[in-house]
Amino acid sequence: MHGVRRELLAQQAESLGLALDEVRIPPQCVNPIYEARMEEALRAHYENGVRRVAFGDIFLEDLREYREKNLTRIGMTAIFPIWKRDTRELTRELVARGYRAITVCVDGKVLDQSFAGRMLDETFFHDLPAYADPCGENGEFHTFVFDGPGFRRPVPFSVGEVVARDGFYFCDLIPKEKGEDK
Fold it and tell me: Can you tell me the mean pLDDT for 131-160?
């Protein structure tokens, strides 16, 4: 969905000191396949003692219920640390704390192509139309966080081309070697 290269996801996880557990799903994946693959991956974690899974959802009740239902089937609990937080306040915190993120996918029905490949900063949030949620909670945009608290170092990349596909604008992020400037 987001179109971020796997190499960048691996570098992001490494910079954060986290293990990356990839769950492969086919393009245009239907829910039964998605749910079966996620359940298989989560059961492996359950067998290793993991009982809770954190999500970054903020206010979509149906999505929260869906996640809770799927986790309950395998004996796990969902936690939502930023649930019902004001999204404008969350964006201010994001910038103030020094996180750096770039838009990698933009819903063309909601935002124009100029929002793809932009840094999430005060200018971005100023330019965002009033009808769009500043955290993209309704799917207006998706991001790649590449630096900030918890990162050992920024994830190096260069911004590639923006392409239109299936009603979305995707910005390609091209991995750079460690040590190259961002």
Answer: 97
